[in-house]
Structure formats: structure tokens, C-alpha cells
């Protein structure tokens, strides 16, 4: 069944789009990531123009994140305070990211830098998570408390930083400066690469700041929700590129998929969840790497220069 | 479907009447009369590509070719800037390298003829009138990252024709025009699903043994239907309101899904 998208200006298969958004929504709810890095390539593959794909995913990611965040909120696994501190940093970082994005575009090498950065990020984070979660799984015979918190040298510097806050849900008492820095970094990378940055935020909060995995997922969803709501308004305002019909289809599938994803995520052990996410990141990264390295079938491509909307 | 296919027969009937009503032209001058199955293609929510039928009638006598006309029909969509890019190997990676843009080139182009183009019109006419796809690509003003030499430029022209044909946006068909009798022909124009909006121009040329005997033009428009049009217009004119509306819709969807699936 085909339906015509008024802003993307092409027909798509309704069931295909809903199926894709169900799957991505499931993954999003399960891991607390936005899923934009999965959805964008899928939409572009079925012919949706990149700008419309990215802009119409923003409300869908927001919808999935909201459903997911509500579930975690009810389970008391969402740290609003931590989320707000991260967001404060994120806004600054996103501003810098947009500036850097335009700098690269002016230099004419935007696509190459983005593609390589994508592969590197997905590869490094996926690889690190894979090693860690495998190790954790192998250690599982030992009691939970026996897993020592390794105190890196940097840790003591962080401990001595001023402006300490207590984050009860996250069982954290620390200075806001590194958290603001983390938010800014994720915001910067997200704005440059056009992603929400959930897959960066989750592992860093888990491994560097030792926040419990369940709280990290809830908090990350909260942060994604706010970021994507802002992105929706910004995309609509700057380029009128949010497609109502496409976004509605994506939201329908995404918010239902996220429900099942959250439930599946709660049933799994933290290290299993991390292992699965690691494999997902590595396979998507691998897919991008193949695109970048393999000899293209046709070296030439045609693009219609965007008309001024 | 308020589709373009609908009333080809009705159009032909009306066309027959109009043709008959026309005052008789001087015996020598050839004339060409054209009619399209619809003047406007409306894109509604169920649009998935469409087709239009062009009817043409010749008046006058083919003088050279022993009583046979040949016809070439060219349909062109609104002009766009089409950019062709070529990937090149940089270290281990394939990265977009040189680009050449074709300015005011049609995103939609169909060249239909009653016999393969080369046997209907002379090569120099095909080039100067931009009758073939290659000639149309070649004739579009160039723009790009740097100056290309002739051989490279030709490669980009070929690539544009190839890629546009693969997308179903350009088409050259040497059997696309069918003569129903000596004077009346029919051609079907296939529109792709991701059709561009705006004014389309259909030019029909009548050939008498390689000599251009008559040339006539007819136009049609591709427009969005009510709902699609209103959404696109609102998104464009009331951007902030539309943006906040979409954000609210996202919240509503998320909340509904959460409420619907809540177990307790």
C-alpha cells in the first residue's frame, strides 16, 4: 500500500515504513538510544531526501523517547537532575557543532569527514563495549560487589572539582563540571554528525561515571526527548523539511516498538544489554565502512540541488 | 484516482470534434494538432506514478516519403540544477571527487519517436534542437568544482543520461509514438512516482523524410491535491507553528502509546 508524502514529494510503502519504525523503536526503547543512526540510512535507501529524512525522524525519536522515558520514570529509573545538567552542556556543544558543520561544508569535505567519523565512533565505542561486556559476562561467577571500581588517576582530579551536586537516583555525588563537559561533547558530535548522541552518552555514563545502567538509559531517553523536540522545531523553522505524513507513520511504529523494547530491556541483564548494543554498533559501523571502502557499482551519482523552500 | 489515465478516450473524442471544426488550411502548409488526455496531473495521497496520452493529427500531405509521416515527441519537466558527482579513491576510501552541474536541465525528460531518432531526424538537427537525451544533457549550461576537459565532460554527460534513465526520469523510446493511421498518432508519457511539480512542455515534431514539416507545443501541469498542498503550504508559511505542532504531536503519540501499553 502506497501513500504519497507531501513534503518529501514521493510515495512510500506504508507497511514498510511502519515495519522499519517498529524495529527501530524497539531498539531505541531497549537501549535508550534515539535510533537516528539506524533510521536515516533506511529512509535514504527508500528514496526520501536526506534533509526530509533527518528532519522527520526528529519528532519520531522524540515520541519514542517520551514513551520510553515515561516507563523509566514510573520505575524510578530516570534522573531528571542529571539529565538537565547534561542538557545545559549539550546546548553549548550543539552550537559549536553547527558552526563546525558549516566550516567543513565550506571546505567541501563534509561528507568524507562525516563518513569516516561515523565509522571511527561506532567502531571504537562498539569495540570497547564489546570487550567490557564480554569480560563482565566471563566474570559472572564472582559476586556483584566484588567488581571493583577502578579509580583512575583522573578520578581524583574530578573529585576535587568544585560545584558538587548530589544525584540521588544515579547514586552520584560529584562536580557538575565534567558532566557539563560530557553534555557539550555529545552535543557537539551530535550536531556535527546529525545524530542524537545516545549511543555516546550511554557508555560514557556507565563506564566513566559509574551510573547504574537502568538509570543511564532512562536519563539518556530524557535528554534525547528534549533535544529532539528542539530539533523538530528548528528543522521545521529553518528548512520546512518535517514531513507530517512520514513523521506520523514513523511515530506510530516507533512508539509501539519502543514499548516492547523497554520491556525487553528490563528483562535483560546490564552486561547482556551492553553486549547486544556493542554488536549493533559494530555491525552498523561495519556496514558504513563497507560503503566507504567497496568499489561503487556506478561511480557517478546525480543530486538535484535543493530548491529554495 | 483523479489520475491522468482516466479519460484518454474522452479526450480523443473531443479532439476529433475540434480537429473537424477547424477551418481548412492552405493545401501546401502542413499543420499539427495536439491534444493531451489531461491538462493537469493532480498528486493525491494514492499517487504512485502516472501516465498521460498525447494525440496528434497531421494536416497536409507528406511530399517526399511516399505518404508516410514520422513524429518525435519530447516532454520536458521544469528546469532544475542537476549535479553529477564522481566518486574517486582516496587511500582506502571512495569519496566524492569532481562534480559537474547541469543548469536548467529538466529532471523529467521523455523523447518518444515513431522510429529510432537517428532515422527520423538529421544528426545536426538532433544536436541543435536538443532532441536526444544526450543532446539535452550536453546542451545544459555547465557549472562545477573545476574545469573539466572535453573527454571528462563527455563522461559526465553520459553518466547523467545513464543515471536519470535508471531513475525512470529520463526516457528515450524509438517506438514511443504509434501512428493510428497515416495522419493520427498517439504517444504515452509515463510520469515517475517522485515527479517534480510545475509546468511541463510537450513538443511534437512532424517529419517528412528527415525534413521538419511541422512543430507544435502543448503544456500540462503537475500539482499537489488539496491535503498535500495544504500541508506543504502550511509547513512553508507558518514554520514555527508547524514545528511546535509537530513537537506536540510527538508528545501526544508517545503519551498515547505509553498509556495504551501500561499494564497496571
TrEMBL record, chain A:
Keywords: Cell membrane, Membrane, Transmembrane, Transmembrane helix. The keyword Coiled coil does not apply. The chain crosses the membrane at residues 12-38, 82-101, 113-131, 176-209, 221-252, 273-290. The lineage of its organism: Bacteria, Pseudomonadati, Pseudomonadota, Alphaproteobacteria, Hyphomicrobiales. InterPro entries: TM_pro_TauE-like (IPR002781), TSUP/Inactive_protease-like (IPR051598). It is found in: Cell membrane; Membrane. It comes from the Bacteria. One of its GO terms (cellular component) is plasma membrane. It is a multi-pass membrane protein. Belongs to the 4-toluene sulfonate uptake permease (TSUP) (TC 2.A.102) family. This is Probable membrane transporter protein. The keyword Iron-sulfur does not apply.
UniProtKB/TrEMBL annotation, chain B:
Keywords: Membrane, Signal, Transmembrane, Transmembrane helix. Residues 1-29 form the signal peptide. Pfam families: Alph_Pro_TM. It comes from the Bacteria. InterPro entries: CHP02186-rel_TM. The chain crosses the membrane at residues 240-261. This is TIGR02186 family protein. It comes from Methylopila jiangsuensis. The lineage of its organism: Bacteria, Pseudomonadati, Pseudomonadota, Alphaproteobacteria, Hyphomicrobiales.
Amino acid at each position: 500500500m502506497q501513500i504519497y508524502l507531501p513534503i518529501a514529494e514521493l510515495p512510500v510503502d506504508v507497511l514498510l515504513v511502519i515495519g522499519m519504525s517498529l524495529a527501530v523503536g524497539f531498539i531505541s526503547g531497549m537501549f535508550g538510544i534515539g535510533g537516528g543512526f539506524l533510521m536515516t540510512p533506511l529512509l535514504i535507501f527508500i528514496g526520501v531526501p536526506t534533509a526530509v529524512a533527518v528532519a522527520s525522524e526528529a519528532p519520531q525519536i522524540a515520541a519514542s523517547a517520551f514513551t520510553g522515558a515515561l516507563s523509566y520514570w514510573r520505575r524510578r529509573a530516570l534522573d531528571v537532575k542529571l539529565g538537565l545538567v547534561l542538557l545545559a552542556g549539550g546546548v553549548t556543544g550543539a552550537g559549536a557543532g553547527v558552526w563546525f558543520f558549516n566550516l567543513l561544508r565550506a571546505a567541501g569535505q563534509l561528507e568524507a569527514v562525516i563518513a569516516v567519523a561515523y565509522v571511527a565512533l561506532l567502531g571504537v565505542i562498539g569495540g570497547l563495549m564489546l570487550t567490557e561486556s564480554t569480560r563482565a559476562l566471563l566474570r559472572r561467577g564472582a559476586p556483584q560487589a566484588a567488581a571493583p571500581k577502578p579509580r583512575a588517576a583522573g578520578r581524583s582530579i574530578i573529585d576535587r572539582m568544585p560545584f558538587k551536586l548530589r544525584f540521588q537516583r544515579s547514586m552520584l555525588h560529584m562536580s557538575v563540571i565534567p558532566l557539563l563537559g560530557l553534555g557539550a561533547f555529545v552535543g557537539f558530535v551530535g550536531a556535527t554528525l546529525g545524530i542524537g548522541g545516545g549511543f555516546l552518552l550511554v557508555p560514557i555514563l556507565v563506564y566513566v561515571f559509574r551510573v547504574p545502567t537502568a538509570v543511564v538509559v532512562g536519563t539518556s531517553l530524557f535528554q534525547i526527548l528534549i533535544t529532539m523536540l528542539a530539533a523538530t522545531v528548528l528543522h521545521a523553522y529553518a528548512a520546512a523539511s518535517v514531513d507530517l505524513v512520514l513523521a506520523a507513520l514513523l511515530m506510530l511504529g516507533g512508539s509501539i516498538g519502543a514499548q516492547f523494547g523497554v520491556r525487553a530491556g528490563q528483562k535483560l541483564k546490564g552486561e547482556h544489554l551492553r553486549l547486544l548494543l556493542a554488536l549493533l554498533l559494530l555491525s552498523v559501523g561495519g556496514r558504513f565502512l563497507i560503503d566507504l571502502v567497496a568499489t561503487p557499482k556506478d561511480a557517478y551519482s546525480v543530486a538535484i540541488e535543493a530548491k529554495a523552500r | 484516482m483523479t489520475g491522468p489515465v482516466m479519460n484518454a478516450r474522452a479526450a480523443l473524442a473531443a479532439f476529433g470534434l475540434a480537429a473537424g471544426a477547424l477551418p481548412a488550411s492552405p493545401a501546401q502548409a502542413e499543420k499539427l494538432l495536439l491534444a493531451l488526455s489531461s491538462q493537469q496531473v493532480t498528486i493525491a495521497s494514492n499517487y504512485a506514478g502516472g501516465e498521460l496520452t498525447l494525440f496528434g493529427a497531421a494536416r497536409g500531405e507528406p511530399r517526399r516519403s511516399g505518404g508516410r509521416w514520422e513524429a518525435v515527441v519530447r516532454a520536458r519537466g521544469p528546469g532544475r540544477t542537476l549535479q553529477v558527482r564522481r566518486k574517486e579513491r582516496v587511500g582506502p576510501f571512495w569519496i566524492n571527487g569532481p562534480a559537474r552541474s547541469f543548469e536548467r536541465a529538466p529532471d523529467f525528460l521523455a523523447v518518444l519517436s515513431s522510429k529510432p531518432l537517428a532515422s527520423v531526424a538529421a544528426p545536426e538537427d538532433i544536436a541543435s534542437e536538443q532532441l536526444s537525451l544526450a543532446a539535452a544533457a550536453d546542451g545544459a549550461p555547465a557549472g562545477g568544482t573545476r574545469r573539466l576537459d572535453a573527454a571528462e565532460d563527455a563522461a559526465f554527460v553520459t553518466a547523467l543520461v545513464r543515471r536519470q534513465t535508471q531513475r525512470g526520469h529520463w526516457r528515450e523510446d524509438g517506438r514511443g509514438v504509434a501512428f493510428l493511421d497515416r495522419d493520427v498518432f498517439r504517444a504515452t508519457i509515463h510520469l515517475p512516482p517522485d515527479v517534480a511539480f510545475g509546468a511541463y512542455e510537450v513538443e511534437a515534431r512532424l517529419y517528412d523524410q528527415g525534413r521538419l514539416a511541422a512543430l507544435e507545443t502543448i503544456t500540462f501541469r503537475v500539482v499537489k491535491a488539496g491535503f498535500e498542498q495544504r500541508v506543504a503550504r502550511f509547513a512553508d508559511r507558518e514554520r514555527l507553528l508547524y514545528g511546535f505542532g509537530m513537537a506536540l504531536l510527538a508528545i501526544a503519540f508517545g503519551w498515547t502509546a505509553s498509556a495504551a501499553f501500561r499494564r497496571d
